[in-house]
Amino acid sequence: MLVKRWRERRRRSQLDVSLAAELSAKHLSYIETGRANPSPEMIERICDELDVPLRERNRFHLAAGFAPVHPERPLADLGVAQDAVRAVLAGMEPNPAVAVNVCWDLLAANQAAQTFLGGLPADLAGPPLNMLRATLHPDGLASQVHNLGQWRAHVLRRVRRQLERTAAQGLADLLSELEGYGAPEPTTNAAIDDLVVPLRMTTPYGDVAFLYAATVFGSPRDVTLDEIAIETFFPADTATAQLLRSLPGTRA
Description:
Number of helices: 13
Distance between the termini: 53 Å
CATH topology of the largest domain: Beta-Lactamase
Strand content: 5-15%
């Protein structure tokens, strides 16, 4: 059933997946109905074709009677990968940068990001601190966001895409929570030279405008690493760039 569920999630036909995974459509049908038990190698081939996240692949192996093949270590135990995360975060200074998991729970942050997150109330500051909850919650940063309707609409679309892609546990509840926050209706709120939807907000240091980029690891084999994204907030205008360079405690 897991294979069928993910095949339908990806909107792929049995014939399409069977050809790509180099097995017969009949064999794939037997696997989907439980009449045939796939080998660990076959599970990985099918999951490769369906772009199944590593956490969910482990469920495939368990359902077939095998031990999980993809380990899950905390960030602190990821060795050179943890070093890479820390290096990217530090290298982004003075731009705020955070490492988050699949549900946007904060795993690590550079000094610039900590500066902007330092004033959150205790119930939002965590741990874990959820970046989306902290941004959209009425008691969080929402009151500081100038284009809250526009930014909220963008965030909700992003969470829905993440849920569709990963089926990660906790994302559906997070989406429902975020949708329940009061917010103005989205408007364009866009300057004619905006390249992306910016995050415009007031901070204790002045008004800022950010665009962001997400970085992920290529070819991960660990569940934690598969779910980590490093999100960096770059200045969307000259005034923000100048403000970031003047932040206390950050390295320009």
